[in-house]
Amino acid sequence: MSAIDTLPPLRDVIATHGLSARKSLGQNFLLDLNLTAKIARQAGDLSASDVLEIGPGPGGLTRGLLAEGARKVLSIEKDRRCLPALAEIEAAYPGRLQIIEGDALEVDPLAHLTPPIRVAANLPYNIGTELLVRWLTPPAWPPFWESLTLMFQREVAERIVAAPGSKTYGRLAILAQWRADARIVMSLPPEAFTPPPKISSAVVHLTALPQPRFEADAAVLSRVVAAAFNQRRKMLRAALKGVAPDIEDRLISAGLKPTDRAEQIPLEGFCALARAVAAP
Ligand code: SAM
């Protein structure tokens, strides 16, 4: 295997800086730099983009992104033990890597990034879904990002790309597919990580659409979908009782059967229902 850069192997980096993995920070590291470069390639042509990375850890994916030619990488890391290792990468790629020490849920990275912006990360499992939902529900569309290339637990990845009728179809699928194309582009077994987690992982690539696939008010759609899937085994007329007093009429005017269940309704149907609910 050829090296992707002249920095030391990640096992040595971890040993030198004493980076024993902490479960509380969701630390499952990728140590194979050919694998991290492959993940970076899934993010598309990086040469004209700034890349936002959450949780660089010892820097495996960061090095992959830089070796694949990212114009600039901005990495936000909560664990200050990782900072000396990341500083070595910064020195090897002058002017192309910026590290912010902090909590990705609190730091606003936008002041440090120039569009076009892509997001790429092996996310800490405990905040992965929350970050994705935030990126999918900005105040205005299109969002700040052109694409998201994100590692999730396999089960979460399946919920993002799920189709109607499947057990994993729900709020996350609708949020993701309403305004983005979402695909699973890689699957990784537990052994790809150090330490290995209990479950498999997958990389999801999402590309922002210029506008939503079907017209709907984001807040109304979100309310309708949350109510429908909160009681996913119930018929829509029961699950959505709290959404509008005349929900049966509104379901019918949206072309849906009040006796249908959320799991069967395609994205287009939920958008029609959101429009019917928002109508006077
Ligand atoms: N990118 C590295 C890799 O692929 O080997 C590490 C990935 S590891 C799954 C998740 C990383 O996110 C860890 O380095 C962890 O310290 C960091 N992290 C956890 N919670 C965070 C938070 N709230 N904000 C920023 N980084 C966080």
Written description of the protein model:
By secondary structure, the chain is an alpha/beta fold. The protein folds into two domains: 3-208, 3-Layer(aba) Sandwich (Rossmann fold), CATH 3.40.50; 218-278, Helicase, Ruva Protein, domain 3 (Orthogonal Bundle). 35% of the residues lie in helices and 19% in strands. The protein contains eleven helices and nine strands. Strands 4-3-2-5-6-9-7 form a seven-stranded mixed β-sheet, with helices on both faces. A two-stranded antiparallel ribbon has the order 1-8. Helix 2 (33-42) packs across helix 3 (60-67) and helix 8 packs across helix 11. The longest helix is centred in the C-terminal third of the chain and has 13 residues, at 218-230. The protein is elongated. The N and C termini lie far apart (64 Å). The model has no long low-confidence stretch (mean pLDDT 97). It binds S-adenosylmethionine. S-adenosylmethionine is lined by residues 25-30, 54-57, 60-61, 76-79, 82, 103-105, 122, 124, 127.
* Number of E-type strands: 9
Classify the helix fraction into a percent range.
25-40%
Low-confidence stretches: none
Mean pLDDT, all residues: 97
- Determine the number of helices (DSSP H or I, runs of at least 4 residues): 11
Class of the largest domain in CATH? Alpha Beta
Second CATH tier, the architecture of the largest domain:
3-Layer(aba) Sandwich
Layout of helices and strands:
Blueprint lengths: L9 H8 L11 E2 L2 H10 L7 E5 L5 H8 L4 E6 L5 H10 L4 E5 L15 E6 L5 H9 L8 E9 H8 L9 H9 E9 L4 E2 L6 E8 L9 H13 L5 H4 L7 H7 L13 H12 L2
Parallel strand pairs: 2-3, 2-5, 3-4, 5-6
Antiparallel strand pairs: 1-8, 6-9, 7-9
Helix pairs in contact: 2-3, 8-11
Bound molecules: S-adenosylmethionine.
